[in-house]
Write a structure and sequence with these properties.
heterodimer, A: 220 residues, mainly alpha, MetI-like fold, 8 helices, 0% strand, B: 260 residues, alpha/beta, Rossmann fold, six-stranded mixed sheet, four-stranded antiparallel sheet, 9 helices, 10 strands, 25% strand
């Protein structure tokens, strides 16, 4: 069987539609995970509750210690048993969010550790406290130092969305499977899929250098 | 006799087995400049930090203009923590390590608390910030980022940031200790202006020259206690206790060594 590139070209419009869903899932899942991780980080630092910290630590080690595919299946197949029937798209987003949030929490822990205690104290001594202290003073500094690992985590999320094809989310990988199971030309179709994934991740990881440069130039 | 502006009464603070503050009491009148000296670890920084509750005291109390800052038992109700923020906004604090905010430019450093805490509009906060920054000699640096400033400039920025909240009292924790010797002068001259404007100040310092010239009173602390206090010329020239004598001798020796 010889490689016929016309099958690749024919597949591209539909693959791009799938890629559009992939991007949506990745952005939505990652944004929610950053939000969740930020809340966890603030709660962990300011409440200093032993029970809460134990739950957070357990959650993180659970996520990090199990394959993401199992987590996706767990949410998609097991939650309905308890009466919670999420569609594949919602279940997929939820799985991605819960998985990524654990890693983002660890990233933010590192970023936060690089903010000196004096930054909190200076703000408190001026009467800035509570959420304003985090939003105006601490989080901006935490996120600036966390840009490279956060961008890296986003590429991980982008790639992990391919696993959602297994719970019938019609994203890039699923579309690709649909096309080659109809035309029996997996090599050509998967080559196109491969290149689209690569280009998406390439653009994202380049943006890290761009963002870092922009913020550093602003400050240096 | 002037009325008491800041009243510090029987403050105690322990860090594990160490007494950082042991029954410290001090009364300060408006406009007074108090310089706190003593060996490192003697509790002088803890005293400043206990006043604005960055380090809550275990017991004792601090009153500003007759009103209790924080509480008397080391714990805060929700109502009391709200009040604490108002007190803190009225007491400027300057740190040894400057603690300027690196993610905000010079102007924003001075504007931020005005907007967030004092609820001023940007139209009010910005001209005020520019005025204060020119007072401390940083007018041409307003668009600069803190990372690009020298230590002396950072400390002047930190002072400006506090002054923008119209403090009635300034707490300065070794404001010149982290500076290169040639940069100490510019910060001291800003402080001198504050003294001349009649600002009430508590300064933890090793600059005995500054303390004797501008301090109304010098407080010597050791082991978490106030050992001696009084006018600079009396305290520095004729110390009553051996501990202060020893401390001053050590300082003299170090300053002599630095000259050679």
């Amino acid at each position: 069987m010889k490689f016929d590139i016309s099958y690749t070209f024919d597949a591209i419009p539909r693959l791009l539609e799938g890629a559009f869903i992939t991007i949506q899932v990745a952005i939505l899942g990652f944004t929610l995970s950053v939000l969740l991780a930020t809340i966890i980080t603030i709660a962990r630092t300011s409440l200093r509750s032993k029970i809460l910290n134990f739950i957070i630590a357990f959650y993180i080690s659970f996520i990090r210690g199990t394959p993401i595919l199992v987590q996706i299946f767990l949410i998609y197949y097991v939650l309905p048993v308890f009466g919670l029937n999420l569609g594949p798209f919602t279940a997929g987003i939820l799985a991605i969010t819960l998985n990524s949030a654990a890693f983002v929490t660890e990233i933010l822990r590192g970023g936060l550790a690089s903010v000196p205690v004096g930054q909190f104290e200076a703000a408190k001594s001026l009467g800035i406290s509570g959420f304003a202290l985090w939003r105006k003073i601490i989080l901006p500094q935490t996120f600036i130092t966390s840009i490279p690992p956060l961008v890296n985590e986003f590429t991980m999320v982008l790639k992990a969305t391919a696993l959602l094809s297994l719970i019938t989310v019609v994203e890039l990988m699923r579309v690709s499977q649909q096309i080659y199971s109809a035309n029996y030309h997996p090599v050509e179709v998967l080559s196109g899929t491969f290149i689209i994934y690569f280009l998406m991740c390439f653009v994202v990881s380049r943006s890290s250098a761009f963002l870092e440069k922009r913020l550093k130039v602003k400050r240096a | 006799m002037k009325s008491i502006f800041l009243e510090i009464k029987e403050l105690n603070k322990k860090f594990g087995p160490i007494n950082a503050l042991k029954n410290v009491s001090l009364n300060i009148s408006q406009g007074e400049v108090i310089c706190i000296i003593g060996p490192s670890g003697c509790g002088k920084s803890t005293l400043l930090r206990a006043i604005n509750w960055l380090t809550p005291p275990d017991s004792g109390m601090v009153k500003l203009e007759g009103k209790i800052i924080g509480s008397e038992n080391g714990k805060l109700s929700i109502e009391q923590s709200k009040l604490l923020n108002d007190f803190r906004a009225r007491m400027g604090m300057v740190f040894q390590q400057f603690n300027v905010w690196p993610h905000l430019n010079v102007l924003e450093n001075v504007i931020k608390a005005q907007i967030v805490v004092a609820k001023r509009s940007r139209e009010v906060a910005e001209p005020k910030a520019i005025k204060i920054l020119s007072d401390v000699g940083l007018k041409d640096k307003i668009d600069e980022w803190p990372d690009n400033l020298s230590g002396g400039q950072k400390q002047r920025l930190a002072i400006a940031r506090s002054l923008a909240m119209d403090p009635v009292l300034m707490l300065l924790d070794e404001p010149t200790s982290a500076l290169d010797p040639e940069l100490v002068g510019e910060v001291l001259s800003v402080l001198r202006n504050l003294v001349n404007e009649g600002m009430t100040m508590l300064i933890v310092t090793h600059e005995l020259g500054f303390a004797s010239k501008f301090g109304d009173r010098i407080v010597f602390m050791d082991g978490g206690e106030i050992i001696e206090e009084g006018a600079p010329n009396i305290i520095l020239k004729s110390p009553k206790t051996d501990r202060l004598k020893l401390f001053l001798e050590k300082l003299d020796i170090t300053s002599l060594k630095e000259k050679h």
